[in-house]
Amino acid sequence: MTAAETQTRQLVEEVVYESCLALNAEDWGTFLGLCDKETFRYRIVNYSPEIRREQCWMERDWKGLKSLLDLLPRHNSDHSPLTRHATVYRVKVDGTVGEADATTLLTIYRTELDGGNSHFDSGQTSLFAVGKYEDRIRLSKEDGPRLMRRTVRLDTRQIGIGSHVPF
Amino acid sequence: MDSPASRNLEQWNRPPALPGSHYLDTRVYTDPAIFEEEMAKIFARIWLPVCHESELPDPYDFRTAGVAGRKPIVVVRGPDRKVRTFLNICPHRGNTIVRAPSGSLTRAEPSGNPKNMTCMFHGWQFDTLGRCVEIPREEQGYQGRVCKANVGLREIRTEVAHGGFVWVNLDDDCEPLEEFTAGAFGFMMTELDTEPLDIFHYQKAIIPTNYKLWHETSREFYHDYLHYHNRATGMLQKGYFDRKYTVFPNGHAATGLTIIAYDAYEGGKERLLTFPGLAKNGWKQLNIFPSCTYSLRTSCLRVSVMTPISERETLIEIRGLGMKRDTPEDRAERIADHDTIWGPFGRNLHEDLLAVRNQSVAMREGSGSRYLLMAREENETIHDEVGLRSYFQEWSRRLGRPANNPSP
Predict the structure, then answer these.
(1) How many domains does chain A have?
(2) ipTM
């Protein structure tokens, strides 16, 4: 790997990890700032062996995701924080268009707060979901790398009462 | 104890000053003995939808499920295209026969032939009619004392109806499905049965709650206040509170057509696709006793089915359906519409599940909970709790005692 390739890979890893830190902190503004406003498309998908087809559980563009996040305070939610642990496994750079694909394995934990019996449960952490991020990233020299697409491909298909926040 | 608004223990435990039909004892949600009685007197005797026909479109396709808490079943489409259901238990040594959630029997199993259901344990095989067709070393072991003709699978009454759902009934002597649904589906027949439907969404979750509490979120709309989406798109719209509730025999109930302003929710948009006969942006809902809801929101049908596991645990399965003839673009639009509200990341589902989970926390046996009210009367319009009352009227008929005093 050349020094330039190593540097590109580092940039890709940084944007993926920064996105996790921002989501973990529920810092939606920073997360959206890492996404390309014009092209960003966020999806959560999985394959259901029950109905033997791929299914999409959430799809938003940048504007749609911002609306969803802006409206969170008006909704009744389980406020238990989610912690995303991610490892970037593969980066493939398409130098001709200045973009890269990254495959990241993802584990999400939930630390209970107010979703159930808070006297008994708050503070407990459990595994919530596993899957991977499939990201398309624009490599911009001017304003740094930006997420153009994020597909969250879940292996976990039972996520209890669900979630109001993106993974 | 000075405040007139609070109550001491004796006052708290005193039955409400209401007709017995307008409140219930919370033991109906928490008592394990009542739960067992419900399984025997309700779930073992009524029609329950277990999957949709589009989940097993081809001959030899199968789908496994469970009914009445703990009875494993396998639904299979035969070469004659007929859908049949069997108890998924091998009559030899009690093993599960078909293990996968769905698939095709056209593929051979490691210990069995294609087109049969094979118990992997000892290789007994059953065809799609439930007949035992293979017992390895039958003659050597049984010498005619046990033969294939006498060890077929237990077949379960099955009908495909009401939008192509596969309904089963564990009671061999039950009434036909049409008699059980008692005309309730007439309310949604054009939308469901004009042309074939197709599944696009499946999710399930085991929720620590009593099954009735989940069903009740569809039976009463007063909890509109829980949902910001409902407040913005429904409650603030003219005529919303005029929406009528209709009660049918056997405990079924329906909420009438209302028009929803989907674009009133920021980021939402008007819904362009519908079902046959359904008004643009229309919404209808039908609740089938004791554990199934058809909710038709303009472009997508959601069918929610519950399998009670215990008095405090329920498997909830949610299916989303569109039209079989959908173009890829139509389908994508229906999926997006569905997931905005009802997907696991949707705005309403999470709120409903959060609510019923917390009800079960508060009403746990010994918590001090005593009575719940279902006393709203608003001329059988949307916030009237007649849907709850009709449910417990049927529940009381089947259990032989009132829900406000459920002691045997």
Answers:
(1) 1
(2) 0.94
